[in-house]
Structures are given as structure tokens and as C-alpha cells.
Amino acid sequence: MTQLTSTRKDFLSILSFDPVDLERCLDLAAQVKADRTLGREAPTADALNGRHVAMLFEKASLRTWTTFEIAIRELGGSVVALQPDITLDRREAAVDVARSLERWVDAVVVRTYSHRQLEEFAGAAPRLRVINALSDDEHPCQALADCLTLRERWGSLRGRTVAFVGDGNNVAASLAHAAAMLGVHLHIASPEGYQLPHAAVQRATSAARHGARLRLFTDGVDAVAGADAVYTDTWTSMGQEAQTEIRRRVFAPYQVNEGLMALAKPGALFMHCLPAHRGEEVTADVLESSASIVFDQAENRLHCQKALLLMLLAHNVGG
Ligand code: CP
Ligand code: NVA
Q: How much distance in Å is there from the Cα of 318 to the middle of ligand 1?
């Protein structure tokens, strides 16, 4: 029997994991990916038997919801899709939602706005496992899939350089945390006023291992020099829609196009968490180019979240 369970109750951030947990999660994700062809014969097919996992999404989602639902089902657990009007702190206090759910389900996957509120929600229910499916500050499930995708391409990640060009947002923050823990150098190029928040920089710097270095730039050209991969995300995240027009203007020089890709290392990969906006943060030709691994990232959401659920919820898995 292989002991999989993480000692952490929740997964609210990449930093909820220590470096050993993070490496173990990626190893396990690769294993469940390979085992998927076995279907119901896979060693983890009943790992969540009798377990209930609720889904509470306050924002839209294609990839995250779908991959969690499939992951839970393929591990033998049951999905409880909460009604869309069940939100944190509108109908009732977020802590009361958590304390109620704790009496019925083993875990809840939450996509919400305030990261602090998510922490309070998780803190209110000591027996409820809480998974961050995206908050305004972090998107740790995305970073797991990004790292698995790069590992598949490169083998070891240590010493590689990724350039993130665009908003210093939730996706950039979780990528910064994961890169630091895995020994990846990260360059982030953002306009003044839209850089990665100081707290995220500090946490990434404290978590850095194997000489990983985080560098902030204001010019995308400087950031992509020497990069093995170039990553971007939407200029306007969910909840920021009122700023769309101003963001279009501010971020226009940060578009990832063929010209910018040509300044990265030869053979550099293109990454995007999706949804993408062709002609804004990325041109259609880059998104559709052979350098683009965006759908590998999307696929790996499934395998990484299976691994995460196993680590949080399965006591032991035969192996
Ligand atoms: N990348 C990602 O989280 O996609 P969704 O918003 O569709 O879940
Ligand atoms: N930064 C984006 C990511 C979407 C997956 C957002 O928060 O809307």
C-alpha cells in the first residue's frame, strides 16, 4: 500500500504543500494519467468510494469544474453540485456554509473572489477539506497542471526559465509559488500598477529552492530573453470586467505575438491557462502554433486534480 495522504487539511495555495508534497502530487498525477486507460481497473478507481465532494463556484468555469467532476467520478466518489445561488456571505455567512457542509461532505471545491474569505471559510470547518478552484489571489490547481505539463516536455524543471507576460494576477502568483519550490526561474513582465503583489513575491522568495529566482520586469522583451517558455493570461480577470477598456489600453504592449516569441529561446513553448482572447493577450498564430501546449495544460488539470483529491482524501491506495 502506498501512503498518499497529505498532512494538510486544505489546498488553498501551492504553499499549502511543502516541496515534498508538491513533487509527490506531480508524480502521482503522472501515474494516474498513465493508468487512465485502465478505466475501472485503475488502482485508484475506488479510492474515493463513499466520499462526497461538493462544488461551490461563484464564477464561470469550463476546465476546472469539468475536470474536478470527472476526477471525482473516476476515483469512485460522488459529486454534489451546489446550486449556483449558494454563495459565500450573501444568503448566509460563509462560515455557516462551511459548518453546514462539514456535516455532510468530505471536501468542497470552491471558486470565489476573496482569498481571505476562502481562508476563513476553511478555518471554520476543521473536518472539511477545502480546495481552492481559483480565488482573486491564487489559482493553485492551474499551477499543478502547468508544472506537470512542463515536466512532460523537459523532464526535470530545475534551472529552466519561464517568462509570464501580462497581469500579475492569480495565475501568475500560483505559478510563482510553484516555480520557486521546484527550482524554476520565473520572469514576470507587467505594466506599473499591475505587477505581482508584494506579498506573493515575498512568499515565493521565501519558498525558493534549488536557486530558483523570481524577477519582475516592466518590459516583455526583457522578460522573455533566455526563456524556455512564455506564459500569458487574460488581461481582465473575472470580477474586473468594469476595467476591461482601460486594461486593453494598458496591456496592449504586452501581447504575446510571433515577434515576442522569437526573442525567447529557440524552441520556447507557449502557455496559457485559458480561456484565451485571440488578438488581445495572445495572437491567434501563437496560440495555434506548434510551440503552444495550452491543451496539454488543460488536459493535465484532470490528472493533477485527481492526484490532489487522492492526497487530501484517500487514506491508502493499493499499489
Ligand atoms: N484555466 C481555468 O481555470 O479554466 P476555467 O476558468 O474554464 O475553469
Ligand atoms: N486570471 C483569470 C484566470 C481564469 C482561469 C481569472 O481569474 O479570470
A: 32
159/156 Cα distance (integer angstroms): 9
Cell triple for residue 223? 522578460
Helices (H), 1-139: 19-35, 63-74, 94-101, 115-123
CATH 3.40.50.1370 fits 141-298, yes or no: yes
Asked if residue 87 lies in contact with residue 96, where contact means CB atoms within 8 angstroms, the answer is no
What is the Cβ-side half-sphere exposure of residue 120, based on CA atoms within 13 angstroms? 13
Report how far ligand 1's centroid is from the alpha carbon of 319 (Å).
32
Q: State yes or no: pLDDT of 317 exceeds 60.
A: no
Identify whether 285 is a catalytic site residue: no
Residue 6 has pLDDT above 70, yes or no: no
Catalytic residue among 24, 139, 160, 185, which?
Answer: 139
Task: Enter the C-alpha cell of residue 163.
Answer: 517568462
What region does 288 belong to: left with phi over 0, alpha with psi -120 to 50, or beta? alpha
The mean of the pLDDT values for the chain is: 96
Residue type, 305: Q
For 105, what's the count of Cα atoms within 13 Å in the CB-facing half-sphere? 22
Residue 27 annotated to the active site = no
- DSSP annotation of 67 reads H
Give the number of other Cβ atoms within 10 Å of residue 280's Cβ: 20
Catalytic status, residue 142: yes
Q: Do domains 14-138+301-313 and 141-298 have the same CATH topology?
A: yes
Ligand 1 midpoint to CA 138 (Å): 13
Mean predicted confidence (pLDDT) in 93-109 = 98
- Dist. CA 204–CA 206, nearest whole Å: 5
Which position among 21, 106, 167, 233 bears the catalytic label?
A: 233
Residue boundaries of the structural domains of the chain:
14-138+301-313, 141-298
pLDDT at 319: 35
- Looking at 3.40.50.1370, 3.40.50.1970, 1.10.8.60, 3.40.50.300, the CATH number of the domain 14-138+301-313 comes to 3.40.50.1370
If you ran DSSP here, which 8-state letter would residue 7 be given?
A: S
Q: What is the pTM of this model?
A: 0.97
